[in-house]
Design goal:
alpha/beta, catalytic activity, AB_hydrolase_1, 307 residues, Pimeloyl-ACP methyl ester carboxylesterase, Rossmann fold, AB_hydrolase_fold
């Protein structure tokens, strides 16, 4: 699923099998943003990690690297790229190994297998210069593991809607399988899953959200992920030395009824914890559902972490 949990519940194909027909949707907005980007690649096993970037480099501001969620790609940030560029940031977004246009990682099939390919990619692109790192959901988990192993890679970290903090929602999310269905029925399952996990506002389920989601889940080759169900992020954060800010949607389905415990878990685990913000009127995919409010909180966090 696009948020990074429950992938087997959504009926992901076994590794190496993705041969059934799937529904597809055109997306002019994704095509427009892709055309504006510069494309780069870095090594990933026998293949490549694909990166896109927008905006001009600045000597006084580090690159801003955004990591997407599970079953996702750079398009998880489709509503945030141009506002961040307008705010003066150069934005870099990889398709994480195993997702989108990137090759699968050389070893493993979960977030821990992404650590070394991502570290290699960041060093290849930016040398010794640390970046500002933002990770959404599965990308937040990946970012935490990455900086626990390689703390020198980032000046600061913003975690957005991440799992693996050792807490479970009062009503766990159960997603519906779709790959076994004929294409005409798959879209109904995608709509259901978007509403169940990703979005609070059902009005947003169709249109761009559905285009992003469908375009991503059909390319997910990391369909047996389990670390999101553990407390591995909470156990990794004590080794993350940089400032850490946390942003969640107030109604994130992953943490229904346990937000106070979540805040306490971050505070206990993170050496330089700068606070947790809840964006009102938003579910798990907070940066898509409330992009203006999210931008305000993200820019404030980045400014604070740069001090």
């Amino acid at each position: 699923m696009a948020g990074g949990v429950g992938d087997e519940d959504e009926g992901g194909a076994p590794p190496g099998r993705d041969d059934r027909p799937v529904a597809s949707l055109p997306s002019p907005e994704i095509d427009r943003l892709r055309a504006l980007a510069q494309r780069h690649t870095t090594p990933c096993g026998s293949g490549e990690t694909v990166w896109h970037h927008w905006g001009d480099a600045r000597a006084d501001v580090p690159p801003l690297v955004l990591l997407h969620g599970g079953s996702g790609s750079w398009t998880h940030w489709v509503r945030n790229i141009e506002p961040l560029v307008a705010a003066g940031r150069q934005v870099w977004i990889p398709d994480l190994p195993g997702f989108g246009d990137s090759a699968v990682p050389p070893t493993g099939g979960d977030a821990d297998a992404l650590v070394e390919p991502m570290a290699e990619g960041l060093r290849a692109l930016f040398g010794p210069r640390p970046v500002d790192l933002v990770g959404f959901s599965f990308g937040g988990l990946t970012a935490g593991l990455l900086l626990a192993a390689h703390p020198e890679l980032a000046r600061q970290l913003v975690v957005v809607g991440a799992p693996a903090m050792g807490l479970v929602a009062e009503r766990p999310v159960r997603l519906k399988g779709w790959r076994h269905l004929p294409p005409a029925e798959q879209l109904d399952m995608h709509r259901y899953n978007l509403a169940a996990l990703m979005l609070r506002d059902p009005v947003l389920v169709d249109g761009l959200a559905l285009e992003v989601h469908v375009g991503n889940v059909v390319r997910d080759r990391m369909t047996r992920r389990r670390l999101a169900r553990t407390d591995i992020l909470a156990r990794s954060l004590p080794s993350v030395a940089c400032p850490v800010h946390v942003i969640y949607g107030e109604d994130d389905a992953l943490y229904q009824g346990v937000m106070d415990g979540l805040r306490a878990a971050y505070a206990a685990a993170t050496p330089d914890f700068r606070g947790m913000v809840l964006v009102a009127g938003s579910g798990h995919w907070v940066q898509f559902e409330r992009p203006e409010a999210f931008l305000q909180e993200l820019l404030a966090a980045l400014a604070d972490g740069a001090e």
